[in-house]
Amino acid sequence: MFKRILIANRGEIAVRIMRSSREMGIETVAIYHEIDRTAQFVNYADYAYRIEGETPKDAYLDMTQIIEIAKISDAEAIHPGYGFLSERAEFAKAVTDAGLKFIGPSHTSIEMMGNKTRAREIMFNAGVPIVPGTKEKITDTDRAIEIATEIGYPILLKAAAGGGGKGMRKVYESSDLVPSLEAAKREAMKAFGDESVYIEKYIENPKHIEIQVLADEHGNYIHLGERDCSIQRRHQKVIEEATSTVLTPELREEMGKVAVEAAKACNYANAGTIEFLLDKNKNYYFLEMNTRLQVEHPVTELVTGINLVKEQIKIAYGEVLSYKQDDIKLNGHALECRIYAEDSFNGFLPDTGKISYYRQPAGYGVRVDSGVETGSEVTIHFDPMLAKLITFGRDRIEAINRMEMALRNYKIKGVRTIIPFLLAVMQHPEFRYGYFDTGFIEHSFDFESLNRMKNEHEEIVAAIATWGWKMTQNANLATDTQPKISKWKEKNLYMRRLV
Amino acid sequence: MENLVLKINNNEYKAHCETDCHKSLIINDKHYEVELLKKFSDNVFSFIVNSKIYQVELFVNGRSQITVSLNGMDYKIDVTDSTTYLLEKFIRQSGKSAGSGAGIVKAPMPGLVIKLFVDEGMTVVPGEKLLIVEAMKMENVLKSTIAGKVVSLKVQEGSTVDKDSILIEIEPT
């Protein structure tokens, strides 16, 4: 097995990868930009090297520097996590060319799936159902109008090179096409350095179902069932779960088989995810393939009992898959809530600041994958996701109730988080019964319920505020109301108890 | 003994201390016992209020403003003592002052101005796009909430802005 690996990432995912590496007896190398000097993940590693860049983000995207550090630090492999360099084919190639192992698929697989237009073509040829739309990159306005008219509104504009909801626009009417196209192109240019978009039929309020696959470098493929990631805002996932409430065992098996075929079509090895849209009539369409570890991978781990990061590392080392398809049994239910530093009361605007107090929940069936602690700075340089809260239950309702408990016990002060929103979703009847789709936040969720939640506590808040006001008008806030016992007296009391 | 009026989200709470002790309070005729249980850091405390535990972040800014954060929700509280409160109420009712502040557009978050739709002197209607502020690669369109004339532009395309900094001033018509 590898003796040492480098983690080309930061935050919660770096911590999570380091945990599994340590468990396998592998030493870990962290890279960090100055701004992350005191971040938790740096302290979690065995070795840490500083990287530089024009912006903090640039540093984590600097392939040359990272590969150089991997060599200096005697790391044998690089785990890219998610985001940053994880889906850059050129990085995977550069790592391999440097004589190191990339913990992920081959650069050719990444390249094949990285360009969405080409990915759709490959999937179409492999017999995987796809959403009607263009196979060509669009930048020209006239061509866009022509295609949109042909497919019929509503349509969706998507960055050809992207993901994560950036550069994505829904268009319901022809009059909105031109301004939306311009905005989508601008965002795509900013995020991916490529302004081309592609146009497809917009499937209204589908469910987002994705299948986890694992493949080794010896041609063995398995799937680990589905994740339902339908609770999204701005096309970004907020709550995920395994299993989905709408998949029958037959449909699960069918989609699993299709996902395996999709992985085979791009000669895939390592962990990957095939994303599908599932419409009201349970037709499914290939959306995209994520050629990396997903943010929401823990829910699959909890229902299958398989540690995906460990499997990734074993596969990268050249081992044969230790599971056959028949070994995969789905057990119980798992939920994940992404803890974003965003203001749920103000359109999910990202919030920044110093975490003045942090206490995470724990207990049976509760898992926290976090990258922050008391004192951590939340800056505008990176994604506002602080942590992931995952709960497991023997059934869905137990997992939901456990999540509600865990969210209540999650205390983060100093930055706003979406915890109040997540709590309100856990209490929402449609969510509890499992009738929801990607339109949930937009159509079913009532933001007034947040205000009602807030108003409930106003009187208590008034009482605490009055207390605080009285204290400060008299003196500084009282800090210690505990009676002090002197060390001498403490010792005497202790002695007396002994005698 | 002092009486206070606390304003939270346009709701008013009358606070009254029963004794000299700040622990015993009456809020809108309801009795509250407030006791500090523990201090976690400069502004983070846990309190026992009527035997129930609450963990809060508490900031007192001078004599008139308090911020409390409870269960991830922020409460901005304006405090006045009851004499000042009555006086202000009287002034408000006697002379109707113009709704100042309504036409001031502030940055909701730190970011970059990537597009301006208006110029000084232009008239705008409610819902009209004013500018796009981008942060973390997401574009946020800021729209006018009032009808009026743009009297001052404080930013241009490419400006970086801090949270709450003034971007545009609109004179209501």
Please give the most extensive interface between any two protein chains, plus how many residues each contributes: A-B, 56 and 57 residues
Q: What integer is the average pLDDT of chain B?
A: 83
Give, in spatial order, the strands making up the sheet with the most strands of chain A. Answer: 13-12-9-10-11-14-21-19
Shape of chain A: globular
The major sheet of chain B is characterized as: 8 strands, antiparallel, barrel
What value does the average pLDDT of chain A take?
92
Query: What shape does the CA trace of chain B take?
Result: elongated
CATH class of the largest domain in chain B: Alpha Beta
The CATH topology of the largest domain in chain B: Glycoprotein, Type 4 Pilin
| Number of helices, where a helix is a run of at least 4 consecutive DSSP H or I residues of chain B | 1
The CATH topology assignment of the domain at 4-103 in chain A is: Rossmann fold
Summing up helix and strand content along with how strands pair, one would put the structural category of chain A as alpha+beta
Total strands of chain B: 16
Task: State the assembly state of the protein chains.
Answer: heterodimer
Question: Which structural class fits the helix and strand makeup of chain B?
Answer: mainly beta
- How many structural domains in the coordinates of chain B? 2
Percent helix among the residues of chain B?
under 10%
Distance between the termini of chain A: 57 Å
- Taken in chain order, the helices and strands of chain B follow as EEEEEEEEHEEEEEEEE
